[in-house]
Specification:
single chain, alpha/beta, Hypothetical Protein Ychn, Chain: A, signal, Sulphur_relay_DsrE/F-like, DsrE/DsrF/DsrH-like protein
Length: 166
């Protein structure tokens, strides 16, 4: 009886995955993308929860790839401000390390993957100062900027569209 249950569960899972992949190939963003050739976005990353932050780092990778698949060249910049900076150090404080351990490694891996995609990533020096992060310990894929808000204003003035991620 137990084998039958597991077998049935496996079959249902496969059916769901198959239907999802079929449905997702039919779903697109045609109306929003219209004749767009390049999609410029600046993501404001201001997240205090490590698990949520890691989730959004993965979502942004999917957004990048989704635009490519729909014929639009993504031109993304991410600006980390506020409590997000706590998770972007090679030497987090003891409390952050203890509370988030393995998740910090996932975040670091996702930051690397984002960089490999060609996504620029900036981190705010005001925030690193407020949260006591030594700038010498920042993940190497990050570019330290004086003020994340100034960076956001500058990118928007250059035509990038703000995507706030809280």
């Amino acid at each position: 009886m137990r084998k039958l249950f597991h077998y049935t569960l496996l079959i249902l899972s496969l059916a769901l995955v198959t239907s999802y992949s079929h449905a997702s190939s039919q779903v697109n963003d045609r109306a929003a993308l219209a004749d767009l050739k390049v999609g410029q976005a600046v993501f404001l990353i201001d997240i205090a929860d490590a698990k949520k932050m890691n989730f959004y780092l993965e979502v942004i990778q999917g957004t990048f790839k989704g635009m490519q698949e729909q014929g639009v060249t993504p031109d993304f910049v991410m600006v980390y401000i506020g409590p997000s900076v706590q998770y972007l150090s090679t030497s987090p404080n003891a409390e952050t390390e203890e509370e988030h351990g393995a998740l910090l490694m996932d975040i670091e891996s996702n930051v690397e993957k984002l960089a490999e995609l060609g996504i620029k990533q900036e981190i705010c020096a005001v925030a690193t100062d407020v949260f006591g992060i030594d700038n010498k310990t920042l993940l190497p894929e990050l570019n330290l900027v004086g003020d994340g808000f100034i960076s956001l204003i500058g990118y928007q003035a250059q035509g990038y569209h703000l995507v706030p991620v809280y």
